[in-house]
Amino acid sequence: MSESNSRRIHPLAIIGALLFAFLIMGLTYVLFNASAQKAFVPQEENVYKITVFPAPSQTPTVFVPTQLPTPTQSVPDILPEGTIGVGSFVKVVGTSGLGLNIRSAAGRGESVNFLAMDAEMFEVIGGPEVLDGLTWWQLEAPYDASRAGWAAENYLERIKQETPAP
What we know:
- The structure is a single chain.
- By secondary structure, the chain is an alpha+beta fold.
- It folds into 2 domains: 37 residues; 108 residues, SH3 type barrels (Roll).
- The protein contains 2 helices and 7 strands.
- The strands form 2 sheets. The chain has a 5-stranded antiparallel β-sheet with strand order 6-5-4-1-7, with no helix packed on it.
- A hairpin with a 2-residue loop joins strand 5 and strand 6.
- It starts with a helix and ends in an 8-residue tail after the last strand.
């Protein structure tokens, strides 16, 4: 063999190398294309955690009795118009729809029993007590004795009671 023949690459080796390269490229394409398709599979929609707050157990309603209680001795007839006293009936006013905190005791720092809405009616059963620069009255709903507590006079208006003629 001559020296020039020994340094030449056989044509079948070149063809074999090209076939091997195409085989590797084809396998690479198939593998990467399959994994790329898996990556673009639509994912499930986002899952959001939602906290549902239950509705209040009692929906405040305006109670207008068909017959108002007759005045008792605890509500003297000598009270000036609009003056609140024990035994009188009051309604919640001036909260702009936000409601009035009815507290467990007189004072701003006391715990809130419930929220009374504008125009809700209560009977005054105790007070007055002056705390935190406010006059506090103990109230009770005439239709539900469990709706009772203390409220600031600034958000109460006395309801005029008239005794029906016999």
